[in-house]
Write a structure and sequence with these properties.
lignin degradation; 29% strand; alpha+beta; 6-stranded mixed beta sheet; single chain; metal-binding; transmembrane
């Protein structure tokens, strides 16, 4: 019930402006495990990310043997360039971006790189049980992860508990997390944790992955770090190891798989080409493109986010006509901002088909706002009726690695109203169009009806909205709490609107301007019981009010001056 805390730029909110801020407020009912947060605006997430760990409440236990210690392991990618320039060069040329120059473990590369001088080291006690919380925060690379001399027992993925899977290799697509127990029962010493790319492109002649190896050290307390033992890594193209890991995961059998199915979809993932856009000044005729069911997704123009268009009743920003099945073979790729509308609490089943057309690669498909059950997956074309679904103990995930030339079947309950991005987590594929959005309606009860958004949320990206959000951030929270009210129903629209689509009421949309506002120390502090804290002095609060008033006056004068100009 908090879609404004989701984060994707121009899907659930307008982008946070330079020197601006926005406070994400949300709850995590029914979730435990390893998640993560990251920027969701272009390549900025290459460095703007971190672990987000939800532990059991006091008095509750893990459904596996309790660890003696926990170690977050965040895997990333590093470029020897400004990552914004890396993306800009690719977009202007209509090509894929340059591969990273290094991988990192908790921000450090290890010593196998010519420029490296730092290594992350986890010091552990002998004969202990260590929980590694591993996150693939990389932009472009599927990853293999191993620890020399040790095996793993996988106990969770994507903040969903699993039945114990024993393996010596963890496989993580971008966006995925794995919780794995490691018993420190080896001979006392130091052991490399190693990270290498898993190349999923086929044929391999198309592959251009980062071929380097990042390392960290698992060091038994009281021993030396030199020289650590190195694990034998899989070959970069070892699909058998990857598929054995992915296909071998099972859940705990609860909660039950939802049924019956209300909405059945088949979504085909496609790579291709489109004519160069005029803005792609270095593009030579055609640009790399991607699509779901033949539609290459485009974010709306800069005037409004999709959720903002819905909440404010704007038309012409998107259309609710995303197809439920692929178009006939040979149909030209279309471009649009198309969403699929879902009734509240409907059970949705999706067959994700990754065609075997050359080139093909493994696509990590991520669904915002929901977990889903993975009922089946395999290689080759999906044939309805010939596949046995696991309805007993399927694994629950939020990101599924759909194998190149293969398929996966997922199912979820649309019980979270809002606009939810469904996209490939290989970052270059998002601007190419490999995504779509589910628009989930509110229900009919107060607990299933989307409440009004917070005052500091910006859904329409104009100066007026940014100013109102800035004012809300510095104003005292004296207004009464509103009862939940339904968001306005979206008016049908026939096509995506132009860049300056009219707002409700007919006022023109003004391009976003930077608004300098920072979190105010005078805002009421959040408490467990939901009531505001009394931690505030009259003097600072008055100063905050005056500062906010002056900011608003100056901003209005600036807007009037710009209007006259």
């Amino acid at each position: 019930m908090t879609p404004w805390a989701d984060g994707p730029s121009l899907v659930s909110q307008c982008p946070i402006q330079p020197s601006g801020s926005y406070t994400y407020r949300f709850s995590v009912p029914g979730q435990e495990g390893t998640l993560w947060w990251h920027a969701h605006s272009s390549f900025l997430r290459a460095t703007v990310y971190g672990a987000f760990i939800v532990r059991p409440r006091a008095g509750n236990a893990y459904p596996f043997p309790a660890p003696d210690m926990e170690v977050p392991i965040v895997l990333g990618e590093w470029w020897n360039r400004n990552v914004v320039d890396v993306e800009s060069d690719a977009l202007l040329a209509g090509q894929l971006p340059a591969q990273s120059d290094a991988f990192t473990v908790n921000g450090k590369t290890g010593l196998l790189y010519p420029c490296a001088n730092d290594t992350f080291t986890a010091v552990v006690e002998p004969n202990a049980r260590v929980l590694l919380r591993v996150i693939n925060a990389g932009l472009n690379s599927h990853l293999f992860f191993k620890v020399a001399g040790h095996n793993f027992t996988v106990v969770a993925v994507d903040a969903g508990y699993t039945s114990n899977l024993s393996t010596d290799t963890l496989v993580l697509a971008p966006g995925q997390t794995v919780d794995a127990l490691v018993d420190t029962a080896a001979a006392p010493g130091s052991y490399y944790m190693a990270v290498q790319a898993h190349d999923t492109m086929s044929p391999l002649t198309f592959a251009a992955s980062d071929t380097t190896t990042a390392t960290a050290i698992l060091q038994y307390n009281g021993t030396s770090t030199s020289p650590p033992a190195m694990p034998a890594m899989p070959s970069s193209s070892d699909a058998a190891t990857a598929n054995a890991f992915y296909f071998g995961l099972r859940g705990l059998g609860a909660p039950a798989v939802p049924s019956p199915v209300d909405v059945s979809m088949t979504i085909e993932l496609g790579l291709g080409q489109l004519p160069c856009d005029p803005s792609q000044t270095r593009c030579n005729g055609t640009a790399a493109a991607a699509a779901m069911n033949g539609v290459s997704f485009r974010l709306p123009g800069p005037e409004a986010s999709l959720l903002g268009a819905h909440v404010n009743g704007l038309t012409g920003v998107f259309t609710a006509d995303f197809p439920d099945a692929p178009p006939p073979s040979g149909t030209a790729m279309a471009v649009g901002t198309r969403v699929r509308r879902l009734s509240f609490n409907s059970v949705v089943e999706i067959v994700l088909q990754n065609p075997s057309a050359v080139p093909t690669e493994n696509h990590p498909i991520h669904l915002h706002g929901f977990n889903f059950f993975v009922l089946a997956q395999g290689v080759g074309p999906f044939t309805p009726g010939s596949v046995a679904y696991n309805l007993v103990d399927p694994v629950a995930r939020n990101t599924i690695a759909v194998p190149g030339g293969g398929w996966a079947v997922i199912r979820f309950v649309a019980n979270n109203p809002g606009m939810w991005f469904f996209h490939c987590h290989l970052d270059p594929h998002v601007p190419m169009g490999l995504g779509m959005v589910f628009h989930v309606d509110s229900g009919t009860t107060p607990g299933s009806t989307l409440p009004p958004p917070p005052a500091d949320w910006v859904g329409v990206c104009d100066a007026q909205s940014y100013a109102a959000a800035a004012a809300a951030e510095v104003a005292p929270a004296t207004a009464p709490v509103l009862s939940p009210a339904p968001a306005p129903a979206l008016s049908p629209a026939s096509a995506p609107g132009p860049a300056n689509s009219p707002r409700a009421g007919g006022s023109p949309v003004i391009p976003p301007r930077a608004v300098d506002h920072k979190p105010s120390p005078n805002l009421p502090q959040h408490r467990e019981d939901g009531l505001p804290s009394s931690r505030s002095a009259a003097g600072p609060r008055a100063a905050g009010h005056l500062t906010g008033l002056l900011c608003i006056i100056l901003l209005l004068l600036f807007v009037l001056h710009e209007h006259k100009a």
